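Known limitations

Files may contain more than one protein. Parsers should not assume a single record per file. Below, a two-record file is shown to illustrate correct handling: read the sequence, read the token line, then continue until end of file.
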Amino acid sequence: MDRLRRIYQLHSLLASRRVPLPLITIQEKLECSRATANRIIQEMRLFFNAPLEYNRNLNGYFYDLKDGKVFELPGVWFNASELHALLTIQQLLEQAQPGLLEGHLKPIKERIEKLLAAGQHDSSEVTRRVRILRMAGRNTSHEYFQVVAGALLQRQRLNIRYHSRSDDEETQREISPQRLVHYRDNWYLDAWCHQRNALRSFAVDRLRGVKVLAKHAKDIAEKELDAHFASGYGIFGGKPKNTARLRFTPQRARWVAEEQWHPQQQGQTLEGGSYELRIPYSDPRELVMDILKHGAEVEVVEPEALRKLVREQLRGALEKYGK
């Protein structure tokens, strides 16, 4: 727990107490040592002018508030992950179309508004000043999404018409849905394809027809799903077949060294300040797209097949600009 959050937690404990709070209790609640607890108390007095006093007779700390005054810390608010979660939920609820759950969602909306208003911040001001922006999100058919989600949870097979962007072809598939995945602002369905007799991932926005079948879906073990979809790079999952070794310039290293491209990535800073990143992958398509975003600031060291793919893409882009 960071020091600032400990300060806010101690303030909450003191504000809700009518009797002094012993130091040993402060240590337990803040999960810290005696020295840290004493340092937090001193910082509250020094930096926040907290009316924090010690009662020797009752062996505890309390707020010495006179004439009915109330003491509040400035800007009691959220950490980054909490704020992101609240604003994301609020944004999704605002975008939700009226449906069967409208009556259930309204109290949740109101609760989110109250949470965002915590610490004397007007909720409308919060949403005006802090934004969660979508990147390259695609529109998904609400009708197909509901059918897919229903079959997924009821463990029924689906017959789908699917249009693939990569080869611009439409195919008919019988699938057993396994998971819905929200990735990079888009929905994907991980499923067992009975035509290919293998696991596949389908973009929900590319569905052109969906029909629920009176057949029980084939169940795939969690371990097998994780091994197939989570171990490879990005949405093009699969058991890793290769490891990409990417070398970034010292300038770009300042950003990339703090990014997570893959849960099993390995990175190291090289002599001279450049940064080397190793990423396991199965299908190279998404990895190539992410590499190209960095232009001349990155080089694919190995494998040679990936290096060739990136080189071809760069050569093709250069040809479009002529000499």
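...continuing to the second record:
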Amino acid sequence: MTSTIKVNNIQNQCGANIINENSNTITLGASGDTIALASGASQTGFGRTGTVDWQTGSIKTATFTAVNGEGYFANTSGGAFTMNLPAGSAGAIVSVVDYTNTFQTNNLTISPNGTEKIGGIAVDAILSTEGQSVTLVYIDGTEGWKNVQDSTSNVTGNPFLVATGGTITTCGNDKIHTFTGSSTFTVSQVATCAANNVVSYLVVAGGGGGGASHGAGGGAGGYREVKSPVTPYTASPLDGYPSAPNRVTVTATAFPITVGGGGTGAVNPNPNDSNTKGSNSIFSTIISAGGGKGSSESTTNSEGAGGSGGGGTYSPNPGTNAGGAGNTPPTTPAQGNNGGQGGTYGPGAAAAGGGGGANAVGVAGSPSAGGAGGAGISTAINPATGETGPGPAQYYAGGAAAGATNYGAPSPSSGGVGGGGDGSPLSATPTPANAGVDNTGGGGGGGAGGAPSTYNGKGSNGGSGIVIIRYKFQ
């Protein structure tokens, strides 16, 4: 026996019509209400809206059979497996996504039920692209399952270091920030892998100014470099990474960058010995010392020590003036070398010494010429900067040469590779020496000396320094 309850209207407390016999419309709830099914109840006839319910609590790691209306995260990191599709019915929908971005290594196979088709062909489909996701809808017996959405892009959060400041270039997976003047290196996000927060860097100070009248060459600015193992480039032999205090691990903060200027060259010898040493360059805890200034005729050089030392000249008569000490203050590895000693006063031996460079001491003055500048050193931390030397590498921190003298050859000696200035030639019209090259830390060349005193040349300025920071960004 069947009972029927029939009413014209059923109303909730707010007065909303739920069932209206006259209009053949059934309305459940009022605007803003939520309709809930009791535990264990199910619904039919409402259909789907073209979306799936993602099964976040069940990551698939082995072959399984999909269910209509569900989306799956497939983890193939342990090996390839298969997702079997359910029996097709019009409107059925299934999705799957590469959970560990390993489909390119271990494929996911999608297999249709029985003789059903995928895209009109009754064969398995293979997902083999990293990060791929697909959504399949069953249409009919002709086409079977059709892919209505296919993403091969892998949208992920950035796990690498993010920073701004200086001139930014890229090389492979590395970003390079080059500072040719004082500024700020600002880290807005650190890398999730701790090793990627240890950055590579090059910090070169300003070169020292050259001396006047039998003037010595200025010393190169101090050279300090660390190559992080995660940034592949050819570093100089002065890579300080093996010594832990040299390493810089960045945090999400602003790091002031100081790029040291070159020292000024001397205009006259004693008592107006006016040249100066170079200025320091700084990144975080790393300080490269400015290059020592070159001696002028008959003077005691109180500022000859520095990253690399300035050259010495003769003083007092007769006597010699030792070159300034390099690697002052000391670092490991050494940030520079000593300047060359001045020649003993007397016929054929009054020339000054060259400034020290990052890779060699300055050459001492000889009976025939002023000393050449000590060689700088090469690195590929940024192939677009520095001074081109032998081969494709870029060179920095070359010492400057001393000026020519009338006791020997009238031609000056050469500055060291890496931006060191040449000394000035002997000339009736005093000619300044060559300045150190800016942003290499090269020393300034020394002025010539001779009789009459109108032949005495002027020293030149040292080159400014540079700071370069390199890190992995992808």
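Parsers that stop after the first record will miss the second one. For reference, the second record is described as follows. The first strand starts at residue 9 and ends at 11.
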